[in-house]
Design goal:
single chain, transmembrane helix, mainly alpha, transmembrane
């Protein structure tokens, strides 16, 4: 019989997944929004506003999907660890942008 208590490895993966999920979602949403608004007219800044709203909507969607995926795969730590590494790679542009804004 196994213990229902999480191991330290599980806790580390869970915390890293949770922390890296949002910046990765923001990066993917930013790339998708620029593709969606690529052919939008730039009259009165329309492309900028359209991209902004697409980024907000897509960030929420991707973040929700990531949390749902986490809930489905919470017993498979190896798969979650691999996804967490992917999130870390996708989070690099978001962290660079935040660093540029802060300095």
């Amino acid at each position: 019989m196994t213990s229902p208590d999480p191991t330290p490895r599980q806790i580390i993966v869970f915390v890293l997944y949770s922390v890296l999920c949002l910046p990765a979602s923001m990066t993917v949403a930013g790339y998708a929004a620029t593709r969606i608004t690529q052919n939008v007219s730039n009259f009165e800044g329309g492309a900028g506003y359209a991209a902004l709203w697409w980024i907000i909507v897509l960030t929420c969607v991707f973040y929700g999907l990531s949390i749902a995926l986490f809930a489905l795969l919470r017993k498979r730590i190896a798969i979650l660890a691999a996804i967490t590494v992917g999130f870390a790679v996708l989070s690099v542009p978001a962290f660079r942008f935040i660093h540029e804004l802060a300095t």
